Amino acid sequence: MNHFRLYEKDLKIIAELEKDSRTSISQIAKNCGIIKEVANYRIKRMQEEGFIEGYKAIIDYYALGYNQYALLINLHRLEETTKTDIIKEFRSIEKIEVMPFIQGTTDIRITFWVKNQKELLEKYDVLMNKYGKYIKEKNFTIIYKNTFLSKKYIHKITQETTIGISKNKEISSDEEKILLLIEKNPLEGTLEISKKLNIPASTVTTKIKRLIAEKILLKATPILNTSLLGYSKYNVDIKISDSNNKKYIIEQLKSEINVTKIEENIGDYELSFNAEVKTAKELDMIMNRLRIKYPNIEDFEVKIIE
C-alpha cells in the first residue's frame, strides 16, 4: 500500500509551482503564507519521495515559426529493449517529446518541433533507419494548438496556459540558446546560464524577461507522479463529424477537473486530451458526458500512458 500523502501546505505549493516553477522559493512561500524554510523543506520532501519527478518548460515554439508533428507508431517483432531504446534515444534529442503507452493500438507517440519538412524528414529518417524493422504501423498528425491545464483534482485551483496563438516572433541567437538551456533544465538559474553562454548575468536576466514578455517562455511546471496518489494517466483521441462544435467540446473538456492537456489537431482525430483518473470508470463518465452533449463525436480512442 502506498502511504504517500499531501498536506494542505503541499497543495498550495503545488498550485504555485504549476503557475511557474521558476518563481523563487521566497515568493512561493510568501504566496502560500508560509516561511521560506517550510516551502523549501516541503518541495524537497516531494522530490525525495518521488512525487515531483522533475520540471517541464512550456515554450511556445509556434511563435518562432515552428510546427509540431506527432508520429504515432505501433511496434512488432520486438527485442527485449527495443521500446525502451527508442524512448531513451528520442527523449535525448532537443525539441522532441516522447509519450509511451501500455495499452491501446499505439505503442509510442513521438512529437517533433520543426521549422520545415526537411527537418521533419531528417528526424524521421533517424527513426526509420535505426528502428524501421520494428515499426508495423505509423501515422502523422499535425498539432496546431496546445492548452495545458492545472491539476484541479489535486488543489482545486484553475490555471490555463495555451501555446499556438502567437506567430512570427524574432529572437536573437543568445535568446535561442537560453531557451534550449531552459528546455533541458527548466530551473536553470541566471548565473548558471551566464557561465554556460559566457554572457553577463544582467544580459541573461534582460533576455529572459523579454522572452516572457513576448509570451515565448511561458513558464515551467512540475512533472508529478500522481500514481503515488492512485491516479492513472490516459490519452484520448476524438474524431468529430462537425467541427463547428469543436470549441464547445474544448470548453467542456476544460471544465473537467481531471483533464490536464488538450490538443487541437489536423489528422485522423481533431482533438486529443490527457486525463488523470483513479479508475477507468471516471474516464468513461467524462466521455459519456461529452458524447451525450455532443453527438457529433464520431469516434474516440483511449490509450493508457506509461
The whole-number mean of residue pLDDT values reads 95
Outline, from the CA principal axes? globular
CATH architecture of the largest domain: 2-Layer Sandwich
Task: State the CATH superfamily name of the largest domain.
Answer: Lrp/AsnC effector binding domain/regulation of amino acid metabolism (RAM) domain
Largest sheet: 8 strands, antiparallel, barrel
Radius of gyration: 20 Å
Give the terminus-to-terminus CA distance: 20 Å
How much helix is in the residues? 25-40%
CATH class of the largest domain: Alpha Beta
Q: Which series of helices and strands comes N to C?
A: HHHEEHEEHEHEHHHEEHEEHE
As residue ranges, the low-confidence spans are none
- CATH overall fold name of the largest domain: Alpha-Beta Plaits
Structural class determined from secondary elements: alpha+beta
Strand content bin? 25-35%
Give the strand line-up of the largest sheet: 2-4-3-11-8-10-9-5
